[in-house]
Design goal:
Blueprint: E1 15-16, E2 27-29, E3 31-34, E4 47-49, E5 52-54, E6 67-69, E7 72-74, E8 77-82, E9 87-94, E10 97-102, E11 107-114, E12 117-122, E13 127-134, E14 137-142, E15 147-154, E16 157-162, E17 167-172, E18 177-182, E19 190-191, H1 194-208
Parallel strand pairs: 1-3, 2-4, 3-5, 4-6, 5-7, 6-9, 7-9, 8-10, 9-11, 10-12, 11-13, 12-14, 13-15, 14-16, 15-17, 16-18, 17-19
């Protein structure tokens, strides 16, 4: 039996705030930033706790080690999202429009990503626990070296998934369409349906040296 992600997100109570100045390493709580451009900000190590970010631009913002805790991020835009080693915990990311999302070595726990489009979601070396991604279009999903526990992708369209050296427990891909899966060495613990198995059959045969004529 496959264990589903355990989610408990509740929309935070927030007050409107102005994003004229945000400082690296500061802790912001209970604030709502709307239609703001964070592109020039250094948000290294900054924490957003019980905050709402609505229609914000995050492109090129320095977000290494940024933490989103019990927060709501809606309609965010970033041709390049630079957020390695960031933390996304007990939060909802809705309708993101991200180009290259550099989230490698990050921690995603009790995170729900719903809708939107992401060209390249780089989660190499990250830890994902209780994560649901649904109704999202992802060109390339990179989980190389990642550790996943109770992660589900539902009704997503994905071109390529890379699982090289991944460690998975209940990584549920059922109900999503993907064109290619790389890194079969990291596919243990993945849950797929019969239709997806037929897609993977040639790859599995090649991995085992089986010739099909």
């Amino acid at each position: 039996m496959t264990n589903a992600p355990r989610l408990s997100f509740t929309a935070p109570r927030v007050e409107d705030a102005v994003a004229d100045e945000l400082f690296a390493g500061d802790d912001y709580e209970g604030m709502r930033f709307s239609v703001a451009d964070f592109g020039e900000f250094d948000l290294t190590g900054t924490t957003f706790r019980e905050c709402e970010l609505a229609s914000v631009t995050l492109s090129e913002a320095g977000m290494r080690g940024t933490r989103f805790i019990e927060s709501l991020i809606t309609a965010s835009f970033a041709p390049v999202l630079r957020a390695p080693r960031s933390t996304w915990r007990d939060s909802l990311v809705e309708s993101p429009r991200w180009g290259s999302a550099e989230l490698f070595d990050s921690e995603l726990r009790m995170l729900h990503i719903r809708g939107g489009k992401i060209d390249y979601l780089n989660l190499r070396g990250s830890t994902l626990s209780d994560v649901l991604i649904e109704d999202c279009v992802i060109t390339d999903l990179d989980l190389g070296g990642a550790t996943t526990t109770r992660v589900a992708l539902k009704n997503c369209r994905i071109d390529t998934i890379d699982l090289t050296r991944a460690t998975n427990v209940d990584l549920d891909l059922r109900g999503s369409d993907f064109a290619a899966l790389n890194g079969l060495d990291g596919a243990r613990g993945v849950v797929i349906d019969e239709g997806q198995l037929s897609l993977l059959a040639p790859l599995l045969a090649g991995q085992l040296g089986i010739v099909v004529e």
